[in-house]
Amino acid sequence: MAGNRRPAVGIVTAADSRERSLGQLHVYDGEGKGKSQAALGVVLRTIGLGICEQRRTRVLLLRFLKGPGRAYDEDAAIEALQQGFPHLIDQVRTGRGEHFGAEDVTRFDRQEAQRGWDIAKGAIASALYSVVVLDELNPVLDLGLLDIDDVVRSLQARPEGMEIIVTGRGAPRPLVQMADLHSEMRAHRRPDPGDAQRFDAQGAIEIYTGEGKGKSTSALGKALQAIGRGISQDKSHRVLILQWLKGGTGYTEDAAIAALRESYPHLVDHLRSGRDAIVWRGQQEPIDYVEAERAWEIARAAISSGLYKTVILDELNPSVDLELLPVEPIMQTLLRKPAETEVIITGRCKNPPAYFDLASVHSEMVCHKHYAEQGVDLKRGVDY
Predict the structure, then answer these.
(1) Bigger pLDDT: 2 or 356?
(2) Quick check: pTM over 0.85?
(3) Residue 73 half-sphere exposure, CB side, CA atoms within 13 Å?
(4) Cα 306 to chain center, whole Å?
(5) How far apart are CA 94 and CA 52, in angstroms?
(6) Strand 361-369 relative to strand 310-314: parallel, antiparallel, unpaired?
(7) d(CA 306, CA 245)
(8) What is the rounded CA–CA span in Å between residue 165 and residue 142?
(9) Do 184 and 214 form a contact (C-beta atoms < 8 A)?
(10) Which residues does 283 contact at the CB level (< 8 Å), separation at least 6?
(11) Cβ contact 119:62 at 8 Å
(12) Which of 110, 174, 208, 219 is 20 to 30 Å from the Cα of 10, by its Cα?
């Protein structure tokens, strides 16, 4: 949010943006948390838009290196998707349930990787899916379990409208070179066993920031995860999604959240605030302060009440960075929140505020490549 009026990548009002029809190849990699969450956020947006516009949408989630015998963070989110939107999502898991290095690769690992890739190739060639998520394909390629040339050829030959999302650490160069979007999740802070007692006492606080794509989509993934966790534990797990700097109409996040609320009534509350315009530094208007404070008062009361198990504060960081909100009340609210309440904070931030020090997870989305920079129009349900 610089002082001039040159729009940053991806920062457009939904009503003004043109839509692309060509599917793109997204690559999310890096050491930070949020890669699989971002992919699931795109899935939720796509399903929500398909329901809203009454058009056929189908998703394949193909998860490499995630065999049975071990639980994963995104399991609950996928359960929520499958229960909420039956017949729209197919899931395949391959591999074994433990971590291993290149020196530990077995014949079984190669067979499982090939089995998953054969399914993926068939799904891509069939053109039956709107979105194909190849979760943890990057480390599979890094371990040499698949022929990279075969993967590249198949991805290049994908149907025109199909969106493909590849996740995992260590994306190989050929994949990065052909990608239309490449976002690295850079870890500034990850859960540390030495800090476990402190963070358990204050509850989870996760922050997703940076110039790259994946912040709000990761937040949508966290909403899914929270709902799924409640389903698996057979108890209510209410979610509040508050969004700053996102006034106006036409955002497909609304369609995604509306779809969630239809499938899980009484579990999801949502509020957007702000003008239908970009707020530039030095050009703030009185209404910007009023809208930011209005949303914060709701957030503060919701967090303190303990009514919600997960509270998502989308675009709070740039609101603070633009000095629309003071830092100290946010700091105090987070310090005093109920231990069982999880808070997710997103958005770009030039000067990290003090509450960043409270986070158990801080991932920076670093944009290495974005198709918008090449003049490609954004696509509803995927980009915004």
Answers:
(1) 356
(2) no
(3) 13
(4) 24
(5) 33
(6) unpaired
(7) 25
(8) 17
(9) no
(10) none
(11) yes
(12) 174
CA distance 344 to 349: 15
| Residues paired with residue 344 on neighbouring β-strands, in sequence order | 206, 312
Q: How many CA atoms within 13 Å lie on the side-chain side of 99?
A: 2
Whether residue 36 contacts residue 74, with contact meaning beta carbons closer than 8 Å, is answered with yes
Taking alpha carbons only, the member of 337, 341, 345 closest to residue 314 is 345
d(CA 223, CA 239) in angstroms, rounded, equals: 7
Per-residue model confidence as pLDDT tens digits over 26-66: 999 999 988 998 899 888 888 888 877 777 789 999 999 99
Q: What is the pLDDT of residues 144-157, one digit of tens each?
A: 999 999 999 999 99
Spatial contact of 245 and 314, defined as CB atoms under 8 Å apart: no
Torsion of CA 81, 83, 88, 89, to 10 degrees: 60
User: How many Cβ atoms are within 10 Å of 27's Cβ, its own excluded?
Assistant: 26
Q: Give me 335's structure tokens.
A: 């310090």
Angle, to 10 degrees, between the axis of helix 35-52 and the axis of helix 215-232?
90
**Rounded Cα distance, 337 and 340, in Å:** 8
Neighbours of 87 (CB within 10 A): 7
Task: Count how many residues are written for the chain.
Answer: 384
